[in-house]
Amino acid sequence: MYFIFEFIKTIKLLILYSLSSRNLNDSGSPTPNPYLDSNLFARFGIALFYAIISHSEFVCYFLVILNQINNASILSLPLPLMVFLWGCLSVPRPTKTFWISVITYTEIIIVFKYIFSFPVWPWVTRYDSSPFWLPRILGIYQNDSSEELDLFLLLALFFHRFMLKVSLNFITF
User: Fold this and answer.
1) What is the spatial distance between Cα 114 and Cα 100, in angstroms, rounded to a whole number?
2) What is the rounded distance in angstroms from the CA atom of residue 89 to the CA atom of residue 115?
3) Cα separation of 129 and 76, whole Å?
4) Is it the case that residue 66 has pLDDT exceeding 90?
5) Which residue, 71, 76, 43, 48, is CA-closest to 144?
């Protein structure tokens, strides 16, 4: 619940910051700022970009949940369990060990799905639409959308680790 309130507060600040038309210095007089002279939509886009990179862990959490909704298998089940039982309960934020564990497990999932996608396995050539088909329960059957979502999750996790390592000072518009 805390994450939702934090996200709403960030959106409010985004809107207020993008709608502000004056930049006042310490004496109260306006200072020239090329950012404030730009288009309203450009300012909102820039503010939205900064909000996303400042809260990139929420993007990772969302993609883990979306991955579980899309795959719903035993192989992808530890990711949301790690997020809800380790990541969300860490105060004030998850540790480096948590993010490395999630990245490693996501890489293992991608390698397993790649190995089991070769036609030497009997379930690759035969497809059963039953939800209780063993390769579907395990998460090793051939699915078109799950590989892209796994790779997108891995990309978001690497982006989050990169944002934890560097400061935001070098990203300017």
Assistant:
1) 21
2) 34
3) 19
4) yes
5) 71
CB atoms within 10 A of CB 129: 6
Cα dihedral 112, 113, 115, 118 in deg (nearest 10):
160
Joined tokens for residue 13 = 């600040």
Q: What is the mean pLDDT of the chain?
A: 79
Total length of the chain: 173
Helix ranges, 72-95 (H): 78-82
Dihedral, 24, 29, 32, 38 alpha carbons, nearest 10: 50
Query: pTM for the full model?
Result: 0.73
**In this structure, what token pair is assigned to residue 148?**
């892209």
Alpha carbon distance 71, 138 (integer Å): 10
Taking each helix axis from N to C terminus, what angle separates 96-115 and 144-165, rounded to the nearest 10 degrees? 150
Which residues on neighbouring strands pair with residue 30, listed in sequence order? 24
Residue in 9, 65, 18 with CA at minimum distance from that of residue 40: 18
> How many CB atoms neighbour CB 117 within 10 A?
14
Report the run of H or E that residue 112 belongs to, with start and end. Answer: helix 96-115
**Mean pLDDT confidence for 47-58:** 85
More confidently predicted of 61 and 145:
61
Per the structure block, which two tokens stand in for 142?
């051939």
Q: Residues 90-100: pLDDT tens digits? A: 888 888 899 99
Mean pLDDT over 113-136 rounds to: 75
Kindly state the helix (H) or strand (E) to which residue 90 belongs, with its residue range: none
